[in-house]
Amino acid sequence: MAATQVIRSEWTKIRSVASTVWTLSLAVMVTIALGMLISALSRNEFDNMSRDDRLSFDPTFISFAGMSLGQLAMIVFGVLVVSNEYSTGMIRTSLAAVPQRGTFLFSKIAVATGLALAVGLATSFVTFFLGQAMLGSHRASIGDTGVLRAVIGGGLYMTLIAVFSMGVATMLRSPMLSLGILMPFFFLISNILGNVSATKKIGRYLPDQAGSKIMQVVTPIDDDTPYGPWGGFAIMALWALAALAGGYLLLKKRDA
Amino acid sequence: MIELSGLTKRYGEKVAVNNLTCAVRPGIVTGFLGPNGAGKSTTMRMMLGLDRPTAGDVRIDGQHYDRLKDPLRYIGALLDAKAMHGGRSAFNHLLCLAQSNGIPKRRVHEVLDTVGLTSVAKKKAKGFSLGMGQRLGIAGALLGDPRILMFDEPVNGLDPEGIHWIRNLMKSLAAQGRTVFVSSHLMSEMALTADHLIVIGQGRLLADTSMADFIAQNSRSYVRIRTPQRERLLDVLHGAGVLVVESGSGVLEVDGDKSEHIGELAAQHQIVLHELSPQRASLEEAFMQLTAESVEYHAHTDTPPGPLEQFERPGPQPGPQWGDDWTRS
């Protein structure tokens, strides 16, 4: 079975369902709109900030503030791409057509990842430029040190969030179960673990906290994070790889 | 040619398919018959490599399913009419299947035409009636122009027009020299379409025979007689050594195909007959008898026989429990 055939087939699948369009457009809109809003608010707040806060003011990172909410739509995209197969029963038709389960899964993941990357990068660049426009005189320039890396990193971050969700959904199969675990995990648990000092050291190894480091240009003053932007990104990539590996092993072993 | 050897599937304690060995031969319609829950769908899923056998093996033209290059060109299967994404149009559903097996796009139009769905090709599948969904599933099975076709309960829930259509389709596919393997829990349906029968009950092979042999062996033939001179006829038949059974309202029945013999005896003794007709017990009855035996056999091995226990199975039993099936359909 040629993988190119399966990739073409998966592309047809992903472009022919409504959920792809609405989850991705939601991710784009929420990330950009919220990013602009928070950027605008930050400009007005700047004069009231403490000296430390002004020193560590990171206009690039602030323009990505919308990702905390936009990533949730990316999670839904990743989950639905995989779990749609299970919730509709399509999986049996799909695996009868492509019995090589590795080829099936990784073609699907490749197509969805490619799409998420394209949308993620576009979103990241638009968010950055619109956010900087809102920040007025406090803006960063794309030519400043580390800014281009952070902007590309924003796109990669959104992509990996989707990939991680695909891996989890492959393991759990049910869309409700997958979303029920991923949503609170990224929206609540990760934030709580990362902000309570006792659990901070563990929290920063969670995928979103480690991964978001790549969007930082100015390091906060009292920051003792033991990894840099790419180190954090690598940690997130490992999470995504682990989820995919778990999904693949279960898919291979399980009855469809 | 599909060969099953020692095929077994266990879900925990429950044996769904038990050491099934048989072959599905090309060029004929093979009926796969068994009561609900006999293991037909599980067997078919194992044939398609969807479920992994606990033991044993399925080979298609000597190969495992997952070794087939572009399997839709070998086997087309309709397992479940609902096994598709309802939000996708009929055309796109078929297109993604075709692309995965390198089947040209024009085949999508052809099969849509064959099953009569061209006019709704752009419509989402979730708006389809059961019959239309079934047609779309069949279009998917025909997509690769395969030599082997497999249908799991294709007439389930269809209206008479749909049933008629599927019946004719299966016959015409077999007439083209293809292998057609179709499961059903209705003997009457099989009698109309199948040339060969594989019967299972509780996952066990009960019969693997041609339809003609099955009919000859399993359907009781008898002669039905009505006469105003009942006592005299009984005496005469008794004298000739023919066993007679009274089946109520004055009707007599004689086992076997003896209508000529009885007619001649009656004529010799000048007995008036109002009816003398050779009868066959329905195949449905024969099938139920065959599968009932398998159920009974299992009840005896699991638990001491008792009329209530067949329904209630109290206490911790190794046998299947109520609700066991819920996790799979």
Layout: helices, strands, pairs:
The complex is a heterodimer of chains A (256) and B (329).
Chain A: H1 3-15, H2 18-45, H3 51-55, H4 59-63, H5 67-88, H6 90-97, H7 101-135, H8 147-172, H9 175-195, H10 200-203, H11 207-212, H12 229-253
Helix pairs in contact in A: 1-7, 2-5, 2-7, 5-6, 5-7, 5-8, 5-9, 7-8, 8-9, 8-12
Chain B: E1 2-11, E2 14-24, E3 29-33, H1 40-47, E4 55-60, E5 75-78, H2 90-100, H3 105-115, H4 130-142, E6 148-152, H5 160-175, E7 179-184, H6 187-193, E8 196-201, E9 204-210, H7 211-218, E10 221-226, H8 230-239, E11 244-246, E12 251-255, H9 259-268, E13 275-280, H10 283-302, H11 309-312
Parallel strand pairs in B: 3-7, 3-8, 5-6, 6-7
Antiparallel strand pairs in B: 1-2, 1-4, 8-9, 10-12, 10-13, 11-12
List keywords for this structure.
heterodimer, A: 256 residues, mainly alpha, 12 helices, 0% strand, elongated, B: 329 residues, alpha/beta, 6-stranded mixed sheet, 4-stranded antiparallel sheet, 11 helices, 36% helix
Q: How many strands appear in the DSSP assignment of chain B? A: 13
Distance between the termini of chain A: 19 Å
Order of strands, widest sheet of chain B:
5-6-7-3-8-9
Biggest sheet features of chain B: 6 strands, mixed
Q: C-alpha Rg of chain B, in Å?
A: 25 Å
Structural class label of chain A: mainly alpha
Distance between the termini of chain B: 27 Å
Unreliable spans of chain A are none
Order of helices and strands of chain B: EEEHEEHHHEHEHEEHEHEEHEHH
Number of helices of chain B: 11
Helical fraction of chain B: 25-40%
